TrEMBL record:
This is Uncharacterized protein. Residues 7-17 have a biased composition (Basic and acidic residues). Residues 1-20 are annotated as: Disordered. It comes from Sphingomonas citri.
Length: 185
């Protein structure tokens, strides 16, 4: 049975069985587990920390996060929180230039330099969020496999085991990991 095929209570039981055979978690043990089970352990660690921060009170983050006056899905919030990490990445700068060229070719780039830059930044942000969602989902799947978080979906059918149909992810940091990260009691 796949992890996402389980109801939340069944996932907790499965998680307890897996964690019973592992030594107690501390920060070095989390890093070791991430290094062993993740393609990008540093990125996964940042995602884990952000989820732990967002769910500081209960350990669960999602399906939405309040950002000022707006409410956004947890994956979008994680993407936005991780965007500054790639600020100086040469690929991001190249993407900005590519978007500018595309907008110029479509003849939709305003003559006002400030407006043009805002439009380019907006289009780059849309593309980065789209690819960021994929990166976040991959990191979360690795964190689930590492036994550091659990995931279920809420929405039209609350806590339904099937994805899709307007359901949004909820991520829960396991209590041991919360304690090791300093966000749990």
């Amino acid at each position: 049975m796949f992890q996402h095929d389980l109801f939340p209570s069944e996932r907790c039981d499965e998680q307890a069985k897996r964690s019973a055979s592992r030594p107690p978690l501390d920060l070095p043990a989390i890093l070791e587990r991430l290094t062993a089970s993740c393609e990008r352990p540093r990125y996964s660690f940042m995602v884990l920390n952000l989820i732990a921060q967002a769910g500081a009170g209960t350990g669960s983050a999602g399906p939405h996060i309040r950002e000022g006056d707006t409410i956004i899905p947890i994956r979008d919030w994680l993407c936005d929180a991780l965007l500054p990490v790639a600020q100086r990445d040469p690929r991001r700068l190249a993407l900005s230039q590519k978007v500018r060229r595309e907008l110029e070719a479509e003849r939709v780039l305003p003559a006002d330099l400030e407006l043009a830059q805002r439009l380019v930044d907006e289009k780059v942000g849309e593309r980065l969020r789209r690819s960021g969602r994929t990166n976040v989902s991959r990191a979360v799947s690795e964190l689930v496999r590492a036994g550091l978080i659990t995931r279920h979906y809420q929405g039209y059918r609350v806590d339904h085991r099937n994805r899709g149909a307007k359901r949004q992810a909820v991520y829960t940091v396991v209590p041991e990991a919360r304690r090791a990260l300093g966000s749990g009691k």
